[in-house]
Amino acid sequence: MRITDVVSFAGRNITQKKTQSFLTIIGVVIGILAIVSLISLGFGVQNYITSEITTIGANVISVLPSQNFGGPAVSKNFNDNDVSAVRNVRGVEEVVAAWFGSYELEYRDQSHYGNVLVIEPSKFTHVYSKTWGYEPYKGRWIEDSDKYSCMIGYALATNSFDREIDIGDKITINDKKYKVIGILEETGNPRTENSVILSKDVGEELFEINNEYNMMIVSVRSGEDVNLVSEEIKDELEDSRGDENFSVLTAEQLAESINSIFEVLTIFLVGVAGISLLVGAVGISNTMHMSILERRKDIGILKALGAENTTILSIFVVEAGFLGLFGGIVGTMLGILIAKAIEYIAAISGYGLIRAWISWELIVGVLVFSFVVGILSGYFPARSGAKLNPVDTLRGE
Asked: So which domain of life are we looking at (predicted)?
């Protein structure tokens, strides 16, 4: 029997039982939908962060008071001596020592739990403007002389309250009002996008800290070896702190750390989504088994006409593959739509780093995968059908 005849038989069997075929592929659709959307968003965020870090932050080093990147906060934060030690390293252009925390923000009788970034304004402006190239969306940069004034992130200004915050409006934090003098343009970083940026004196009063910092952003002079500067910072901090419980990460190392976290997370989520696909595979296998029982006489006729076992096997395996492929096509389309919808919602909510990564490699890979899942699911029922005795099937036994 020709390949076209095998495909024709398989296609006819599917179209004759539309409802049964539709119910069968639902499990595959759900599994593929979840896999496509999770992989798309996982790699999209990963690629965006890596790109931003390695391009904008190529000459920037992040210093954190813990070796456990992304882990819980530690009690021993940085102090002025640590900052001075880093600032005196050869090749360092500027150091932004900051305290990053969370607080309840109030605006026009509405509350929002947001971020507060405490910095030295002049150093903050230097790094964000000169090193990273960001500018205020409205208003101006916060200055050292600003007392109860603040700068805020774009998402906090535009999406966090019913009414947008504008220049001259006031935000209340812990019963104290802060006048908005600047709104930072979109950065895609949720930390700054949803932050109120306060000067050091005011911020220390708010968080009841004194010359204490939980992060440092170091800009390196142009032409200097960033990795060499990073190693010297490690040595100086070790002498200053008396321990090695801190992290000094170049843009490259930071990207690698983030990538490793996202890879593990993506694998876990795809594994969970794979459970749905397994359910779909079982559904295909069950459908093929029932189909063979219903068409025993047809199998007998084909064999009586000279069809070989491999031909019968091919018909049912191709049919199962088509069920998997159809489920894969629908699931891929829905998965892409969901990923794009999440990207859109995240963008208008100020989380610009959430991106959907769609490529031909992903689409083709998922469709081939769903087709193979269908084939494997239908193989064993098909094999049992191919081995049926034609005499017995024609007798109805």
From this structure: Archaea
As given in the structure block, the two tokens for residue 253 are: 């190392």
Amino acid at 105: L
Q: What phi and psi values does residue 88 have, to the nearest 5 degrees?
A: -85, -5
Query: What's the rounded Cα separation, in Å, for the pair 106 and 374?
Result: 55
224 and 133 co-located in one domain? yes
Residue 184 lies in a domain: yes
- Same structural domain, 94 and 219: yes
For residue 39, tell me if it sits in a domain. Answer: yes
The number of domains in the chain is 2
Q: Which H or E element spans position 199?
A: strand 195-199
Domain boundary among 244, 275, 305: 244
Residues 6+ apart with CB under 8 A from 372: 321, 324
Write out the residue range of the structural domain in which residue 330 sits.
3-53+257-395
Q: What is the pLDDT along the chain (397 residues), one digit of tens a residue?
A: 566 655 666 666 666 667 777 777 787 888 888 888 888 888 787 777 666 665 555 688 889 888 765 554 555 889 999 999 999 999 998 899 999 988 899 999 899 888 999 999 988 888 888 777 788 999 999 998 888 899 999 889 988 888 999 999 999 998 899 999 999 988 767 778 889 999 998 888 888 888 899 999 898 888 888 889 999 999 999 999 888 888 888 877 776 776 777 777 777 777 777 776 777 777 777 776 676 666 666 666 666 666 676 777 777 788 788 888 888 899 899 999 999 998 888 877 766 667 888 888 888 988 888 888 888 887 777 676 666 555 555 554 5
Q: Are residues 323 and 364 in the same domain?
A: yes
Instruction: Give the max Cα distance, the chain.
Output: 98
Single out the residue in 219, 244, 269 at which a domain terminates: 244
